[in-house]
Amino acid sequence: MSKPALLSLHQALRKSFQGLESNQKVWSDVLAECSPLMVSLGNLAEQWRALSNVQLSNTPLRDFPDLEERLRFKLVQATDTVLCKLNGKMSSLQSVRDSISNQVSAVFQLYEENTDSLDLLTVTERSVTAPSLSDMLEWLQDAERHYREQYPFCSCSHWVGFSFYSGSVFPQVMFRFLRRKTLLQTLRADDLSLLESAPKRWKSFESPSAEDRITDTLCKVSFFIKS
Fold it and tell me: Residue 177 pLDDT more than 50?
């Protein structure tokens, strides 16, 4: 067992968990900022539907011949503004995902570089303040996979053939899940059915149980991070 290798791994793990902790907060904050935007999008969809269901020419508003065109123009502008803001939030989520992926990748690369000097006892040994290397690597792997699946289409060649627990696979279908960015890319101001269903579909992407597991992981390594 190489003590320098173990110390280096502990240092890398500590840095990665600290990054995970800060990035999880950013991720949660960004998603919280998206919620009122999705509500606004749903409200705009209702306004679009109401405008489509009424014949202004059959109402007292017929005296304003260009009113419908002006209302549609304002709705298009408002819808585009909300979608632009949401796409901006997606860029923030992508930055979080990339940061977590890069940090975890660096830890696994360091581990692979030192596998010859780390025996089984070293990898599985726990202490009062530090979980085992195998546990911490698995937890990081779980966290990285969660954020990757939430925001897919990233390169993950560093995971090929590598897993710390039996049955762990990374099928390519995971990278084709219809997630938030893909949903936003399908929305158009002239497609009411998509706009109306967007808030509900967006909410279906939430993964509170996965976020709770990451929070639990951070609690497990809290003493290790501070040591």
Answer: no
User: Under 8 Å CB-to-CB from 227, ≥6 apart: which residues?
Assistant: 129, 130
Whether the model clears a pTM of 0.85, i.e. scores above it, the answer is no
What is the C-alpha separation between 226 and 46, in angstroms, rounded? 51
pLDDT of residue 78: 92
Into how many domains does the chain fold?
1
Contact 93, 27 (CB under 8 A): yes
**CA torsion, points 37, 152, 190, 36, in degrees to nearest 10?**
-10
Q: How do residues 29-66 score in pLDDT, each as one tens digit?
A: 999 999 999 999 999 999 988 888 887 777 766 766 78
Tokens representing 200?
């509900």
- Of 118, 80, 140, the closest CA to residue 2 belongs to 118
Domain range holding 113? 3-226
Residue 149 neighbours by CB distance under 10 Å: 17
